[in-house]
Specification:
By secondary structure, the protein is of the alpha/beta class. The chain is built from eight helices and six strands, in the order H-E-E-H-H-E-H-E-H-H-E-E-H-H. The chain has one domain: 3-Layer(aba) Sandwich (Uracil-DNA Glycosylase, subunit E), CATH 3.40.470.10. 42% of the residues lie in helices and 13% in strands. Helix 1 packs antiparallel against helix 4. Bound molecules: uracil (URA) and iron/sulfur cluster.
């Protein structure tokens, strides 16, 4: 069995934080395990919990549209995961303790995927993966280099649904992400299956 399948199987049984008690499904992630581009959200909502896949509600449809604008597809050329893999009750923010407990799974996924570009979706992922004092309103679209891997953050799709006024800025960020992927990644736009 591949490391990836083993990891997935282990993760599916995880009880490392209390979120396991109220989940329906562990939402491990979706996409290519050799993706050059990794998108990271916050945690599953109700639909994701029921279906076991990240970003499948209204926000998910918007995310798919955003990806399509820059030639990406969740199944073909990227990977999408979350900071926490089980749904926080009432969609509250995941607690720091829950994020820390779950981070080992994401670290393991990151080591196996070895992405070149990482896009954080929203404040929670940006704080966890870029820096603790990340300010999404001021710092979305900015690039951070971590051991040669390019990290950025854009507004969370749910924030764009709540406040469509944020969409033009996000469109600019998406174009910059496309440019960065073209400069940094060999496969993403040439080998989609
Ligand atoms: N919001 C997230 O951050 N992740 C999901 O998977 C769904 C909604
Ligand atoms: Fe395990 Fe993460 Fe689920 Fe907590 S949220 S039970 S750490 S998979």
């Amino acid at each position: 069995m591949s490391n990836w399948e083993e990891l997935r199987k282990e993760c599916m049984q995880c009880k490392k934080c209390a979120l396991w008690e109220t989940r329906t499904n562990v939402v491990f992630g979706v996409g290519r395990q050799d993706a050059e581009v990794l998108f990271i959200g916050e945690g599953p909502g109700e639909n994701e919990d029921l279906q076991g896949e990240p970003f499948v509600g209204r926000g998910g449809k918007l995310l798919d549209d955003m990806l399509r604008i820059i030639g990406l597809d969740r199944k073909e050329n990227i990977y999408i995961a979350n900071i926490v893999k089980c749904r926080p009750p009432q969609n509250r923010d995941p607690l720091n303790t829950e994020q820390e407990a779950c981070m080992d799974w994401l670290r393991a996924q990151y080591r196996l995927i070895r992405p070149k570009v990482v896009v954080c979706l929203g404040r929670i992922a940006a704080k966890a993966l870029i820096k603790d004092d990340f300010k999404i309103t001021q710092e979305h679209g900015r690039w951070f280099d971590k051991d040669g891997v390019k990290f950025t953050a854009i507004y969370h799709p749910a924030a764009l649904l709540r406040d469509p006024g944020k969409r033009p800025e996000t469109f600019v960020d998406l174009k910059e992400i496309k440019k960065m992927i073209e400069e940094t990644c060999k496969r993403t736009y040439t080998e989609g299956e």
